[in-house]
Structure formats: C-alpha cells, structure tokens
Design a protein that fits this description.
Elements (H helix, E strand, L loop, with lengths): L1 H15 L8 H13 L22 E4 L2 E8 L4 E3 L12 E7 L1 E3 L14 E7 L2 E3 L12 E3 L4 E4 L13 E3 L4 E4 L14 E3 L4 E5 L11 E3 L4 E4 L13 E3 L4 E2 L14 E3 L6 E2 L12 E3 L4 E5 L19 E3 L7
Parallel strand pairs: 2-4, 3-5, 4-6, 6-8, 7-9, 8-10, 9-11, 10-12, 11-13, 12-14, 13-15, 14-16, 15-17, 16-18, 18-20, 19-21, 21-22
Antiparallel strand pairs: 1-2
Length: about 325
C-alpha cells in the first residue's frame, strides 16, 4: 500500500513539473497567431496547439523553454509578417526565406527582439522602404534583406548597429546613394553587398579608410572614383564593381595581396593593367568593357583567363588577346 501511494505521488509530481523542453504559453500563443496570420499554410501543419512547440514544430528551436530560432522557408506561405513576431522575446534567429507570396513590410514590433542575432528575410515579396527602426536591433550581426521589392534609399541608420558584420540588401529596387554615415560604422566594418539595385551617385570618400572583407556594388549606376576600396595594406578578398559608371586610372591602384576575385567589367576605367596583378592568386578576374590600353603584363595567373575577361577595351593587347 505504501509502495502504491509512493508511486502515485511520484506520478503527480512528474505531471505537475514543467518539461525542460516544453515552450512557454506566451511563445506558443505567439507562434499560433503567426501561423494564423500566414493563412495556416501546410508548411506549418506540425504547429498543432495540442503538442509542444519545442519538440516537433517545423522551423522552431528552443533553449530553456523559450523559442530562440524561427525558420519559415520554401513553402505555401502567404500574407504579411504579423506583429506577433515581436512577442518571441528570446528570438536569436529569424529567417523567412524563399516565400514569394509573403508581402507587406517589416513590422515595427520586430524592434522588441533585443536578442536577435540573425535576421534573414530573403527572396520574398516584401516591399516599401527598408525601415529606419531596423537599426534598433543592436545585437544583429547578419542582416540579409536580399531579393525582395524594397524601394527608396538605404537607411543611414544601419551604420549604428554595433555588431553588424554583413549587410546584404542586394537585388532590390533601392535608389539614391550610399549614405555618408556608412563612413562611420560604430562597430565592425561589415561586408557590403548592394548589387543589383538602382543606386547611383559617388561613393563617400570616407569609405576609403575601411578594410572590407568583401564589397559587391555591381549592377547599379555609381559614378566617379571607385578605387577607394583598394589598398596595398588591406586584407580584402573580393571586390566586384562591375556594371557601373566608375572612372579611375587602374595603373595607379594599389592592390591587396589577399584579393582572389576582382571584377571591374563594364565601367569607364582607363589606364594600363598594373604588373602588380600578376602577383595575386586570382580565381576570378574581369576587366572587359572599359577604356584600358597597353600590353597585358605576363606572369602570374593573368594569362589563364579567357580573352573575354579583357575584351572590348580601347587598345589592350598581348596574351590572351592579339599580340601587340
């Protein structure tokens, strides 16, 4: 009899104690509201109110009973990002990607996510301006808003995000120039991916002091001198300034030995190809459709690239083009 009472007591105790894996009621309710706002897609069919959201719900990860990661990707999702996203207060990763029927803009309630480290809203149909209040996410290190329909200027306030390491806002419809404030990042200088927008104007001279790891400004309408991204003492690995209207003398540029990918094609760059390029371990190289002249320096890897990487210049000659 005593053994039976002891077993009943342990059973009651076990049932009454919360599981270390079960999510909190607040997080669960927020997720169910998000599912409803996204029109109950089949992608989220596992989000059953009778089950625990931390142990089987698609795209949900938890730490200490709090939802810390939410990934909704490649599914039949439609609607807008609901305001309830801001109720997942411990969220560190928010990833809504490859959702072509996700529309609207980024809700202001996202600023409640003070622990957010990664924000990826990639290849959706989000539109309107990129909101200034994104900069209130002071813990974000990786910002990816690429392949959307965002319009208007780049918010200068992004430079005030102290932990930002990468800005990917490429493949949108952004207009205007690179903000002057980008010359004064408060934290680590991020990788800069702004390609395939409708940006224009000159690059702020203040960016010349930075040692970017990667810069891709291709497919815009930038003008003036783009050579400030280069420097002998920098550690830049990849630079793509192609398909713009940059004008500078290539023969005067000092290149970092670390560069492995360099694309300057389809600009108005003039001068000669400097011999210094023969000392780089280039994996990708293209200077076609510019105003370059002179003999292509021999040595290194330059002669391993196709003639098309040098074609359509004023008067370049030498291998792999015709002899001088």
């Amino acid at each position: 009899m005593k053994l039976l009472r002891h077993s009943i007591f342990l059973s009651i105790l076990f049932v009454s104690l919360p599981s270390s894996h079960s999510c909190t009621p607040n997080d669960k309710n927020a997720l169910l509201q998000i599912k409803k706002s996204l029109n109950n897609p089949s992608l989220l069919s596992s989000w059953n109110p009778r089950t625990d959201c931390c142990t089987g719900w698609t795209g949900v990860e938890c730490t200490d009973r709090r939802v810390t990661s939410l990934t909704v990707s490649s599914g039949d999702v439609s609607g807008q990002i609901p305001a309830q996203i801001g109720d997942l207060l411990d969220l560190r990763t928010l990833d809504f990607s490859y959702l072509t029927h996700l529309t609207g803009n980024i809700p202001h309630t996202i600023t409640k996510l003070k622990n957010l480290d990664l924000l990826r809203l990639k290849q959706t149909n989000l539109s309107g301006p990129i909101p200034d209040y994104i900069s209130e996410l002071k813990s974000v290190t990786f910002l990816d808003l690429s392949f959307n329909q965002f319009t208007g200027p780049i918010p200068g306030s992004l430079s005030q995000m102290p932990k930002l390491e990468a800005i990917q806002i490429n493949d949108n419809k952004l207009t205007g120039s690179i903000p002057n404030s980008f010359g004064y990042f408060v934290g680590k200088v991020p990788n800069l991916y702004l390609f395939n927008n409708k940006l224009s104007g000159k690059i702020p001279e203040s960016l010349s002091k930075y040692d970017f790891n990667a810069v891709d400004l291709s497919g815009n309408g930038f003008i003036g001198d783009g050579s400030m991204f280069f420097g002998r003492n920098k550690t830049t690995i990849r630079i793509d300034l192609s398909r713009n209207l940059f004008q500078f003398d290539l023969s005067k540029v000092q290149f970092a030995r670390s560069i492995v990918s360099l694309d300057l094609s389809q600009n108005r760059i003039f001068g000669k190809i400097p011999r210094q390029l023969t000392r780089l371990r280039l994996e990708h190289f293209n200077v076609s459709y510019n105003r370059l002249c002179g003999k292509i320096p021999r040595g290194g890897l330059l002669q391993t690239f196709e003639p098309s990487a040098f074609s359509h210049n004023l008067c370049l000659c030498g291998t792999p083009l015709k002899p001088c």
